[in-house]
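Purpose: get a first structural picture of the assembly so the mutagenesis plan has something to point at.
Setup: three entries, given in the order below. No constraints added.
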Amino acid sequence: MQRDTLVAFDGVIKRFGSFVAVQKLDFEIRKGEFLAIMGSSGCGKTTTLRMLAGLEAPSEGSIRLAGKPINDLPTWKRDTPMVWQSLALFPFLNVIENVEFALKMRGVGKTERRQRAEKWLDRMQISEFASRNVAQLSGGQRQRVALARSLVVEPEILLLDEPLSALDAALKVRMQTVLKTLQRETGITFVYVTHSQSEAFSMADRVIIMSRGKIEQIGTPQEIYRTPKTRFVADFLGSSNIFTGDVVHADAATIGLSTPSGTFRLNAAAGGAVKTGQQATITVLDTKPALSLDRPAEGRNMLRAKVIGEEFVGATATIYLETAGGQEIRVQKSHAELSDLPVDIGQELYVSWSQDDGHLVSAA
Amino acid sequence: MRRSVSLYGLTFSLPLLLWQLVFFVSPLCFLVALSFWTVKNFRMQPDFDTVNWVTMYGRSVFWMAYAKTMAMASFAAVLTSILAFPFSYAAAFKLSETARRWAVFLMVIPFFTSYLVRVYSWQIFLSDAGIINVMLGWVGLGPFHLLNTVGATMVGYLTLAFPLVVLLQMFSLVFVDRTLIEAAHNLRSGRIRTVFAVVIPSARVGLVIAALFCFILSFGDFVSPIYLGGGDPTTLSILITDTTKSGQQWPRAAVIAITMIITLLAVAFMAVRFAYKGRTK
Amino acid sequence: MSDQRPDAHQRSRTIDFALKAYLLLGYAFVFAPIAASFVFSFNSDRFPSIPLGSFSMDWYRAVATDPLVWEGLRNTLLVGTVVAIISTALGFGAAYTDYRYKFFGKQAYMALALLPPTIPVVILGLAMLAFLSRVDLAGNAFAVIISHVVICAPFAMALTRLRLSQMDASLEAAAWNLGASEWAAMRHVIIPFTAPAILGALFITAAVSFDEFAVAWFVSGLNETLPVKVLGFLQGQVSPRINAIGTFVFVTSMTLVIVAQVLLTGRGAKTEKAALEEE
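Result (structure tokens, whole complex):
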């Protein structure tokens, strides 16, 4: 365990009857980091967070906070305040009373707790709403109250359970900036659970991707994006083209993979060790391939595919293609890059990428 | 969260449990025991004798009362359901949100009046020189013998159960998926036919439960049969009060009471089965 | 709203009119006896009917000057208050148990908690009277309190449970998370949130107890148990005084119910509603 570890999950398993929600979690949370736990519904991310908060007890394994095991510590004795998905603000208390609540439970005196609450209201820029009832606030304002309420005790760690999921797109982006700045300024460790890739990748220092109770990959957003470790991760991120096939040659410099769509080469350094004859999967980020009418230069990986659809988001376009063998390809381009290329549905094009652009995923 | 039993949890869950066990279950169990006691010289003594059961079940008076009560309660359940339905339908589908809230509030008011007083009031309406006969007299009709009839008893049952049945029916009608009705209309099902083909089946659970409650209330009621029906026909509830009044025959009254409870449980069970037939709760 | 309904073109004016007329008919049927009782409480005739006699407060006077009635009233108020407090407390506990816990036998527990109102009063009365006589508790206010709590607690439970289901599913956990122990969370979060329902339950159980009981108790005024009382009543101690008593009981109960309503849709709940409508 490193010196800057705040929380350690050690062999943690959680079962609900015969259903295993979390299978053998081993990971650490570092002091002062913004960690996101990401995955689709049912992957176990919320269960993990709840175990940290004390709302569920691990079936096996131990959780340590600042070195001390907290398995048997009830929720109210842990210092792990949470921001809830529904915010769970107390409707019968006004804003400042909500924020003071945790201090009141700790026995802090009236004047002191009011002062501390006011300080946080000011910091979250909602001082003017202090005596309002929470029901009268907008979604964004309520978020800030929820944050202030949890942070007023100045904890070492803050847990967040998909708090932005109910907000509209513009507000979401604004709140992401607020959260990121807050975390940087206070230095409090944030553990943020979400199913949204964009939220996790834009705010977190490290991301844990979970699926069916297991950790698929832990790393910085860049690492995960560029080098997904498993096929699941690549699929989940949805921004890569995935090819599965047999390794036809593997030496120190290059790896060759024979797939139904063609034989492709990638640099050996871009993946793990494989042997000839093994099954392997490679991924190619959708921003890498080039599209052309004419046959690309030799030495490039290439295949032919037909355009089956396009999608426009802001200034970028994603072109969907399909090979004769049914392999789906996606290529992301800016509008400028596509201006000379005919990309109507049915158009046949060459898709090509260089050896440097592929990445070997460890297990199929 | 906390799997083990805690003092905290027990503090909240035990009191009602204990109260009901001691003051609800025990008296009913005692009733069962009581049915096996014997009465000698107008005094009860603990015993285990089936004489009360044999005697009571051997009496045609008992079976007549049983049959009559069954018939009247069943009829009341059907009648009330039918009479309440147009009312509940109108309230659920034809009123605005605010109007509906008022409708519900008005229908809750009767629960806070005394049933006895309302039945006494009906006497005023139904008696030979009562309001209805006087009004009929103005147009040269009657007087009709309205009081002390089965019909009058039915009026009493209606007074007892109509508000509850309406509220229960309304509650389930309000939740009928409106898009189903639209779809039916779209498929050229006429208004009336849609009611029978779509609305009633959708709300079946609530409608059956409402009828069940009416049955239960009517089956056990003694105020209407005595007060408006004049004690004729003799219902099981009247039989109980008669049996207790004459010669302290509490054990025999217990037999009647237990038979009533078993009947009600059986009817409730079958009604709930029927209500939920083919769908999950 | 009524004319923007999707099936607007399907509606027949005649049917609508007929249904609304039926509504009025239904209310007329339900309120006729209540209205009659009210009117005849002020009517001088010993055997009420139409045409009405003269306006008279005689029946109210008769009731007000009867010492047995005052004693009955005092007993009823005492019983009502005690029943309200006990029923609400027991009902609250059961509602919270249903809300929070899952355990073996929970269905049986719930059945036991909600069953009493389905047993006919005459049977319950018989059973209680027999049982309580054996343990020497019959014939006094205790017996009445006991039986009434059995009947009223389910109502308190239902009302409280309804309110709890309106609570944010994470609210209690949020309190724990912020440092409140279970007892502290109950005191600072659950009870403040359910306060309107608790208050409502107190008033409604009091009203039910008051009503269920008042007339029979009043009519005889003796310190006897309910079933015996009612049996005696039915043997002919009827008089128009019952209208006076009935009206008085009705007015009192309605006041209690309206107060409960006002409290339930009071401060907290109203701002919640307003906010929901804003969104």
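Residues 55 and 211 of chain A are 21 Å apart (CA to CA).
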